[in-house]
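A student in our group prepared the protein record below, which I am reviewing. Here is the record exactly as it was handed to me.
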Amino acid sequence: MSTVSKDDIVFKALANGLRRQMLDAMKHAPQTTGMLCEQFDNLDRCTVMQHLKVLEEAELVLVRREGRERWNHLNALPIQAIHDRWISQYAGHAMSVLSALQQGLDQPSE
């Protein structure tokens, strides 16, 4: 039986373009589910809720309820963790390769 890592859950959530658009919509301010439904009017409310559930399971969205409203807040910490674990260490290697290539190109040819 395999276990799914937290990173896998975050990558799965980020793999869908609509979910990334929803995160973008929450980047500057929290959004109610109704506000998100209005922004994604090509989707029905059930589909928006399903996408929000995936984002919530990945802890990319934190939910605060106020009466009947559900406020969805972007939580960027899992994205930062992915960056720290996966992107930054590989980006450093890529930069050193590009730097060596640039130095090779800057050498006068004989």
Q: What stands out?
A: The mean pLDDT is 90. The first helix runs from residue 6 to 14.
